[in-house]
Hints:
Layout: H1 2-31, E1 35-37, E2 52-58, E3 64-70, E4 77-79, H2 81-87, E5 92-99, E6 113-116, E7 130-133, H3 134-137, E8 163-164, H4 181-202
Parallel strand pairs: 3-7, 7-8
Antiparallel strand pairs: 1-4, 2-3, 2-5, 5-6
Amino acid sequence: MINNLLQKVLVSTAVGTVIGFSTIIGTINSAAALTINSPSVNQRGQTQDISNIVLYLKDNSGTISKVKIDSVSGTKSYDATNFLNKYYPDSQVVAYTVKAGNNKSDMGPGEGELFVLNQQSTLPKGAVNETYQYSQVSQIQPSPQQPAPTPVVEESDIQPGRNTYALAQEPPIEKVKVPEPGSIVAIAIFGIGGLLAKKKVSS
């Protein structure tokens, strides 16, 4: 009887620990993830493609900058995670606007619908501080954190407080597959079950 009680407590504790640990890992991994979806639907009920995205990024000093991803085409969704991890690893996204179809906001020229993630932030209005082209940033692969590229100011874009970045082509990076937290939980549960089954058979 004591063995059965001890076994039940041990199994519950082990399973709870494994599930809790994988939940924590999943939360940490998803904390930096940001997928932006088109908010606009046309008259036929179809989701419209995104035209541009403006990210409102708060740095360690508390300053909020506007970073635009321009000339977005052929997509209704953009995962900004790799872009943010590569060029803005120490910044927090406090809001973003998404231009798709005829939607708009009063945040700046050509900006679409506003989505606020951090209500405590006062968001700047007006021109963006930096611009990236979608054709370049959409190809960024997960990689170790690197510093932001050196700004290249184009003559046609000379405006106070605005930079345009030219990104160099990088060699492709081989992907490393890491098991999802759910897979880790399943492996751990089967492993514990196997150990307990062996112990029960030997008893």
